[in-house]
Design goal:
This protein is an alpha+beta fold and 153 residues long. The protein has helices at 6-18, 119-130, 135-142; strands at 23-26, 42-46, 57-61, 67-76, 80-84, 92-96, 100-109, 112-114. Strand 7 (100-109) and strand 8 form a beta hairpin.
């Protein structure tokens, strides 16, 4: 199977969202663990069509051009947002709204469809956000800390 450059692929998906399409992407990386897992779960996202708020999962572009999927932990109006992955304790502050291009509206987690109204999603969007300083301890106790996960070759 031919390999696809990740940046080119996400550029293409970003373009499709600009045209109004809902697109899907298999998760790569552990920053959204334990809610989403590397090479197991899929996100479905579209161009944001409503005001963004804390708890939303969004795709955005960092200043260096890298694409990131994280959760909004704090909104500063609609101009800027603080972001963090569910596995992270550090917050990326003041991400400008114009860098956000995708709002996750559904996920397939462990083969099961979840929406923002699903109890597990609500837990991570609200409760998990507030225990950010304790995340690593909780994940270590549960054995779900990403660094403890089996690394890909």
């Amino acid at each position: 199977m031919p390999e696809v450059d990740t940046r080119e692929y996400i550029d293409m998906l970003k373009g499709l969202t600009e045209e109004g399409h809902l697109v899907s992407l298999l998760i790569s990386g552990w920053s959204m663990a334990p809610f989403l897992a590397d090479q197991r779960d899929t996100v479905y996202f579209k161009k944001p069509d409503r005001p963004l708020k804390a708890g939303d999962i969004v795709f955005y572009t960092r200043a260096d051009g890298r694409y990131v999927l994280h959760r909004i932990v704090k909104a500063h109006g609609q101009e800027a947002f603080d972001m963090a992955g569910d596995a992270q304790v550090c917050v990326e502050r003041l991400v400008p709204r114009e860098r956000i291009f995708g709002l996750v509206v559904r996920v397939t987690r462990k083969g099961r469809e979840l929406t923002p109204a699903s109890p597990l999603w609500v837990f991570f969007a609200y409760v998990w956000r507030w225990v950010r300083p304790l995340r690593h301890r909780i994940m270590k106790l549960k054995g779900t800390l990403p660094s403890a996960q089996k690394k890909r070759p």
